[in-house]
Amino acid sequence: MTSPISAGSLDGPLGTLVTLALALIVDRTLGEPPARIHPVVWIGATTNRLIRFAPRSGAARLLLFGGAIALGVPLLSGWLVWLLFSCAFPAAIAAVGG
Question: Are 33 and 41 within 8 A, CB to CB?
Answer without folding.
Answer: no
